[in-house]
């Protein structure tokens, strides 16, 4: 019997999109003193979406609105959560944004939000502020406003996330870079990887570049400008699966390009690098720092880091290039172990801003006897 094709998974919207829409509705209601039960915003991907409000509580000085987050078919912990925005007039010029009940507070370094601030990430923060400014401009208002984003059930929801371990206390983070939630489908994603490798093979590519996402792919394309577009494949979290498919398809050279967080896991032999798959081993990173010549104080700083990115920033600040080269070499070795040799693997690690931190290459055939394949 033929297998039934998978139904297309329904996309949802991020907490950042919900917060921006609720803010627009609340501010419009505050200015007009009229109930607003919907708001249309422009997402970072350029798409306009209208959100329905579940509540709109109006006073002369403030308005509270709330919308229910729809994560689509993604198994998101915040699905069905109410995302609220309370907008008030302020005597201070400009727009003040903060988090209220159920929005976490950052207590550790190494995150994209400074310590002490509400865990509203940069893109959602920009969306909220731009949505508010758009309303102020439309009504030609120059008065200051205060925006408080809250998630009534956020503290309970946060227990299902990694926020506590990352030092985000008291609730969830307001997240999102695209504005939409792309459903996580293992079989669909793996199928897309296989298709991409097949296309590369048919196009005559003997060298492919596999990346964890769109940002790292942009860095990779600059690093390998002579390769055709078909040679670049987004593997997402499926590192081991992608490497095995490359070898199975006869690809001779594979370059892995990514950033500290996920590549720190690859270097430890973790070949499925989803955030929930395995934690970063900071003891492992501390050992690499020691091998690179770091002093005891630096080593302990790495060991006590909050995120792999923070550990990388420390080593970069101290000028330990060998730390990153060793990390890349470990990624190559673990990748070759995963596929039992037969291909050449090289690894490059970048910062979020596109600075190359380290690079290494290993030819699996040279180590076949050493690893007893």
UniProtKB/TrEMBL annotation:
Catalytic activity: Co-precorrin-5B + S-adenosyl-L-methionine = Co-precorrin-6A + S-adenosyl-L-homocysteine
GO-annotated biological processes: anaerobic cobalamin biosynthetic process; methylation
EC number, as in UniProt: 2.1.1.195
Enzyme class of the recorded protein, top EC level: transferase
Pathway: Cofactor biosynthesis; adenosylcobalamin biosynthesis; cob(II)yrinate a,c-diamide from sirohydrochlorin (anaerobic route): step 6/10
Keywords: Cobalamin biosynthesis, Methyltransferase, S-adenosyl-L-methionine, Transferase
Pfam families: CbiD (PF01888)
Gene Ontology molecular function, alphabetical: cobalt-precorrin-5B C1-methyltransferase activity
NCBIfam families: cbiD, PRK00075.1-1
UniProt-listed HAMAP family: CbiD
Family to which the UniProt record says this protein belongs: Belongs to the CbiD family.
PANTHER family for the chain: COBALT-PRECORRIN-5B C(1)-METHYLTRANSFERASE
Name used for this protein in its record: Cobalt-precorrin-5B C(1)-methyltransferase
């Amino acid at each position: 019997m033929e297998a039934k094709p998978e139904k297309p998974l329904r996309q949802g919207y991020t907490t950042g999109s919900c917060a921006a829409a609720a803010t627009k509705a609340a501010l419009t209601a505050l200015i007009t003193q009229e109930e607003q039960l919907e708001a249309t915003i422009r997402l970072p991907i350029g798409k306009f979406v209208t959100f329905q409000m579940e509540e709109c509580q109006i006073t002369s000085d403030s308005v509270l609105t709330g919308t229910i987050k729809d994560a689509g078919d993604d198994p998101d912990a915040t699905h069905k959560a109410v995302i609220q925005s309370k907008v008030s007039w302020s005597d201070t010029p400009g727009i003040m944004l903060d988090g209220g009940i159920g929005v976490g507070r950052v207590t550790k370094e190494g995150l994209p939000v400074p310590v002490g601030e509400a865990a509203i990430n940069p893109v959602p923060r920009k969306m909220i502020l731009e949505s508010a400014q758009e309303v102020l401009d439309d009504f030609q208002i120059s008065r200051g406003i205060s925006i408080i984003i809250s998630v009534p059930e956020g503290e309970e929801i946060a227990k299902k996330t990694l926020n506590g371990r990352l030092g985000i206390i008291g609730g969830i983070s307001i997240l999102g870079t695209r504005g939409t939630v792309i459903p996580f489908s293992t079989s669909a994603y793996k199928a897309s990887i296989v298709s991409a490798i097949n296309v590369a093979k048919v196009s005559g590519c003997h060298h492919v570049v596999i990346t964890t996402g769109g940002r790292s792919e942009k860095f990779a394309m600059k690093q390998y400008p002579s390769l055709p577009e078909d040679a670049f494949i987004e593997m997402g979290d499926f590192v081991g699966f992608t490497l095995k498919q490359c070898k199975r398809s006869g690809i001779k050279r594979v370059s892995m390009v990514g950033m500290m967080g996920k590549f720190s896991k690859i270097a430890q032999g973790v070949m499925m690098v989803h955030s929930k798959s395995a934690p970063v081993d900071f003891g492992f990173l501390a050992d690499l720092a020691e091998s690179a010549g770091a002093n005891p104080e630096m080593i302990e700083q790495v060991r006590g880091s909050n995120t792999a990115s923070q550990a990388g920033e420390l080593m970069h600040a101290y000028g330990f290039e060998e730390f990153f080269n060793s990390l890349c070499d470990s990624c190559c070795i673990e990748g070759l172990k995963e596929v039992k040799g037969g291909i050449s693997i090289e690894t490059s690690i970048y910062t979020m801003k596109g600075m190359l931190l380290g690079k290494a290459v290993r030819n699996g055939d040279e180590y076949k006897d050493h690893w007893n394949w």
